[in-house]
Amino acid sequence: MTKKSADPANGHPPAARQVPMRDFSRSLPMSLLRAREAVMRQFRPSLREHGLTEQQWRILRALAAIEAVEVTELARTAFLLGPSLSRILRDLEARNLIERKTAKADQRRSMVSISKEGLKLMASVAPTSEAIYAEITRRFGARKLAELQEMLGELEQSLAGLGAADETIAGE
Amino acid sequence: MTKKSADPANGHPPAARQVPMRDFSRSLPMSLLRAREAVMRQFRPSLREHGLTEQQWRILRALAAIEAVEVTELARTAFLLGPSLSRILRDLEARNLIERKTAKADQRRSMVSISKEGLKLMASVAPTSEAIYAEITRRFGARKLAELQEMLGELEQSLAGLGAADETIAGE
DNA sequence: CGCATTCACTTAACATGTTAAGTATCTCGC
DNA sequence: GCGAGATACTTAACATGTTAAGTGAATGCG
Q1: Which CATH number is A103's domain given?
Q2: Who is most buried in A73, A98, A170, B4, counting CB within 10 A?
Q3: A42 found inside a domain
Q4: In a domain, B161, yes or no
Q5: Helical ranges in chain A per DSSP H
Q6: What is the pLDDT along chain A (172 residues), one digit of tens a residue?
Q7: What is the model's pLDDT at position B163?
Q8: Which of B27, B11, B4 has the alpha carbon at shortest distance from A67?
Q9: What is the structure's pLDDT at B162?
């Protein structure tokens, strides 16, 4: 199982541990990171075959559900930072998967929408993607999956008010 | 509060939706991503004050618990890919936070360990980090936190055997 | 021994994450 | 209607994620 940590023969016991902290491999951030990686590992090969990255796919999916959106709103929906989105949109536009036009009322805003080609690409990826999602659901259990997502949402809510570092939660 | 989405006056209803797919904002990968971001947002300011990134902190934490490790083993522990780790170790070594020496038995391997300075830095960060973790635990609930991590572990396990894309789960 | 293979890492190249600046546009008070 | 400030993006700069290729050192087999 490639599981040969703690070599029992060379005589260096757990040792060190000069700074008292939790075992970080069991910390919440690591658990979330590993779980997400385990999930995304299932999707990446399929996306890759279609020349899409995870983020590009997120953007197309967000766009497929609507007529057109401002970049800022899209950033919120696809959970990407402005600069990342800006670059990716440039590339997706060059590949003719999306279209952009500045809003008439406000020249600062540009409205983004998915193109016909973008829709075709989505249509070719969606079935596999759905199948993978279905398999994950089957393996983990639909009930548990719903529970997990419920808990993840609650976790987000719990931390919603804890913005920066200087927030001392005055009133509390 | 800058929260003026869904302009109710310009008459473009949900519209589009030419490709049938789940609402991706409720997909598992997005739930995991948002939850992790909500958690890490709490830690980043403190780490930043000490000139550490999330990944550098992971590496130091992994090193603090042991005498020395090979790079490959460290990559597995800190959940980083080789190339990322390689770069970060170069930087941490330049900052004298870690030390490296090639193993005597196998010239290919290099053993990494945390330095005295690294331990001092950790000691100055750990209290705040632990306090933040405690606050998160308090807000979300220790019981629920344990449950959540249990589920995340199970999710990982569920997907453990589903490696690449060409795996057709022959027998099944 | 000789040499192809494997191994442990490092480099390289490209995409994204992240913060800070920059640019153009809009809004508002005077 | 003009100039300060706010907005909506975009660029820039640096760190990491990710895959592929490169390098030097061990292994194994004929």
Answers
A1: 1.10.10.10
A2: A98
A3: yes
A4: no
A5: 28-49, 54-64, 71-78, 82-94, 116-140, 142-159
A6: 333 333 333 333 344 556 667 778 889 999 999 999 999 999 988 998 899 999 999 999 999 989 999 999 999 999 999 999 999 999 999 999 999 999 988 999 999 999 999 999 999 999 999 999 999 999 999 999 999 999 999 999 999 876 543 343 333 3
A7: 56
A8: B11
A9: 67
What range does the domain containing B80 cover?
28-153
Interface of A with B in 27-86 (CB under 8 A): 27-43, 45-46, 49, 54, 58, 61-62, 64-68, 73, 77, 79
Angstrom distance (rounded) from CA B65 to CA A22: 10
Question: Please, which residues 116-145 of chain B have a Cβ atom closer than 8 Å to chain A?
Answer: 119, 122-123, 126, 129-130, 133, 135-136, 139-140, 144-145
Residue B15 forms part of a structural domain: no
Three-state DSSP at B142 gives helix
How would you list the strands of the sheet with A110-114, edge to edge? A69-70, A110-114, A98-102
pLDDT of residue B2: 35
User: Could you tell me which residues come within 8 angstroms of residue A135 by beta carbon, excluding any fewer than 6 positions away?
Assistant: A42, B162
Q: Name the average pLDDT for chain B.
A: 84
Residue A8 lies in a domain: no
Tokens 């999707």 belong to: A43
Nearest CA in chain A to B38: A156
Q: Which of B21, B36, B122 sits opposite A33 (nearest CB)?
A: B36
User: Does residue B154 carry a pLDDT above 70?
Assistant: yes
Give residues lining strand C (CB < 7 Å): A 53, 55-56, 80-84, 87-88, 91, 106-108; B 37, 40, 44, 48, 70-73, 82-83, 85-87, 89-90, 100, 106, 108-110
